[in-house]
Amino acid sequence: MIIKNGLVYTKDFSFEAMTVCTEKDTITNLSTDASEVSVSEEDTVFDASGCYVLPGLTDVHFHGCNGHDFCEGTQEAFEAISAFEISQGVTSICPATMTIPAGTLSDICESAAKFCKAQKNQELPENLSDLIGIHMEGPFINKKKKGAQNEAYVITPNASLLYDWQKKAEGLVKLISLAPETEGAVSCIGECHKDFHFSIAHTESDYDTAIKAFEAGADHVTHLYNAMPPFTHRAPGVIGAAADTPGCFVELICDGVHIAPSVVRATFRLFGDDRVVLISDSMEAAGKPDGEYSLGGLKVHVSGSHATLADGTLAGSVTPLYRCMLTAVSMGIPLQSAVRAATINPCRSIGVDNLYGSIEKGKKAHFLILNQKDLSIKAVIKGQLCI
């Protein structure tokens, strides 16, 4: 396929007029001179005039959409989730689990590995997002900051359990969320950080404890500000510790509900657009009408942009990552920064940026084509498929 006449988001985080050439599912050439690109009768040509050409988006923290939850652990659920995500420009996904029984998590890992293998063997439809990882959000959390997680299944961090999940997942487990103040958490990070990325989450940790976790190897913070102590001038907590740790990525839910616009702007200034990872944290109601849904076995009421438990606790979002990216832009974040936070940053944060997250020769031919005037989706391209 040849994508021409568009403004391409480059590896240098700017837009440039370029022609992109692909073969099967791989980018083969980039050229700033369209006359240098030869077009044969066999080539499919996509005219991106008046459009931005972005890398496909990557969501490393969401639980479900389209009426399904990743924790269902079925091939049907994975396929429904992947089909919806790609329709929203999210071409690679690392869904999150919940705090549920450890045995059930093992089953989910095994089922996800089966789905991933079927994708690689081209046994599934092409119009699905690539399943590139699993984010274990729980069960290693602090019950006092459980949010919408089920405290009945909270357990202390366990390295052998992590490796058992990874074996079942055949290497798909990329990110482990945990509370560093819980028993054995820091030592678990130290023991396993070469094999997993660790993220501080659902925590009451103070600054010093968070620093110990980062020094042990943690390099990520789950949904910054949510389910953790606030950042204050005498108690900077996890947020301050993350700011003081070079290379630490921080997730941000820009759905217009979880984080105020001024805080979103302040976060990009504090951490820089190279460390912010936009996530949706969406649950099964994303893409569905208002009503009653479920998250981690708990009932969730959805009304408009709000998903809440009976007591009013926020229970994820109903906003796809593409919409979160646009919301960040509407809050004053430059488009180039918002795109960076929804493409290459999440891929770097889980170690898959060798294949995903940017438009470079040798990487996956995944693209999100947006109209320049209103940033609406013109097309989603994955390999030779144009959606």
Rounded average pLDDT: 97
Treating each run of at least 4 consecutive H or I residues as one helix, how many helices? 10
Which strand-content bin applies to the residues?
A: 25-35%
Low-confidence stretches: none
Main sheet: strands, sense, barrel: 8 strands, mixed
Helix share bin: 25-40%
- The Cα radius of gyration reads 20 Å
Oligomer: single chain
Shape: globular
C-alpha termini separation: 14 Å
Structure summary, number of beta strands: 22
> What structural class is derived from the secondary structure elements?
alpha/beta
What does this structure look like?
By secondary structure, the protein is an alpha/beta fold. 27% of the residues lie in helices and 25% in strands. It has ten helices and 22 strands. It has helices at residues 75-87, 102-120, 159-169, 185-192, 207-216, 237-243, 261-271, 321-330, 335-342, 344-350, and strands at residues 2-9, 15-23, 26-31, 45-47, 51-55, 57-59, 64-65, 68-69, 90-93, 130-131, 134-137, 173-178, 197-200, 220-221, 249-253, 276-279, 291-295, 298-303, 306-308, 366-371, 377-382, 385-386. Strands 1, 2, 3, 4, 5, 20, 21 and 22 form an eight-stranded mixed sheet that branches. The protein has a six-stranded parallel sheet with strand order 11-12-13-14-15-16, sandwiched between helices. Strands 6-9-10 form a three-stranded parallel sheet. Helix 2 packs parallel to helix 3 (159-169), helix 4 (185-192) runs parallel beside helix 5 (207-216) and helix 8 packs antiparallel against helix 9. The radius of gyration is 20 Å and the shape is globular. It starts with a strand and ends with a strand. The relative contact order is 0.17. The mean pLDDT is 97.
